[in-house]
Amino acid sequence: MNTRRPLAFIKMMRPINCLMVASAVFVGAAVTLKASPQGHIARLLLGALTGWTLFAASNAVNDYHDREIDAINEPSRPIPSGLVRPWEALAFAAVLSATGLLSAFYTGLKCLALALIALAVSTSYATWGKRTGLLGNMMVSLCIAIPFLYGGLIVAGRIRPLTAIFSAIAFLANVGREITKGIVDVEGDSAQGIRTVAVAYGRRAAAFAATAFYFLAVALTPVPPALGEVSLWYIPIVLVVDVGFLWSSISLLRSPTRNNARRVKNQVLAWMCLGLAAFVVGAL
After folding, report:
1. Hey, what domains does the chain have and what are their CATH numbers?
2. Does residue 231 contact residue 284 with C-beta atoms inside 8 Å?
3. Are 143 and 22 in contact (CB under 8 A)?
């Protein structure tokens, strides 16, 4: 049995990123409650399904619109490699979107409203926002931050300040990562007229911009313990995360090349995953 096509659809979803989004729903709930959200598991599972499917749908739509750019930058991706046809990517996105919105409806009307906002932002990013450069970076990063708020909304019916702080950290870190990705994709983006920071101002300027957002994210990490909102177990984990971000930033500033930016992009994803662990441990 040929598994290349099914695996291509899975790859198009970006399962690791989707898992982070789904996990962020539980993290947002735990941070909001400052306890294990055991009494809300059914609704949180629906929330995680919404996060996974809507994020996966946005990735499929993004791959559809980026198919010509990816033919230059990432020819091994599902559409340029020929494993997934363009119309199949759109159909896949439609099914994923419908699944996500249906699960949001059964979670609650406030959750459905937030899910619709996330879907609107992610679709706008894929269709026109990407070409705006920094604004596009912020749009996709907002979609990364929303699941934390979504989890808090599920268990509390509102967004609490601590959850908002964690969401802001995730937002800032991901803006930096998106700018770093622009350094990797500068040739294809330039050919398609996409005004990323790297295209508009050069790789070195983009490295400084990405580093600024990483530093802003790190600067917010002491706020929760300073307010007495997290346990002491948060501190050693988040210190590793902070050192990791600083180390990756220095590496990017020293060598803002395509290959190194790709390495830094992957490193930052690891720091963000570890940051999720810090949020969970600190909240419980």
Report:
1. 8-283 (1.10.357.140)
2. yes
3. no
183 in Cβ contact with 258 (< 8 Å): yes
Interaxial angle between packed helices 41-65 and 86-107, expressed in degrees from 0 to 180 and rounded to the nearest 10: 160
The C-alpha atoms of residue 224 and residue 162 are separated, in whole angstroms, by 7
Give the number of other Cβ atoms within 10 Å of residue 249's Cβ: 24
Phi, psi angles (nearest 5°) of residue 158: -155, 170
Q: Give me the DSSP letters along 76-87.
A: TSTTTTTSS-HH
Give tens-digit pLDDT for 124-167: 998 889 888 899 999 989 998 999 999 999 998 888 888 999 99
Cβ proximity of 251 and 180 under 8 Å: no
The two tokens of residue 67 are 């198919």
| pTM, to two decimals | 0.85
What's the angle, vertex CA 26, arms to CA 23 and CA 29, rounded to 5? 150
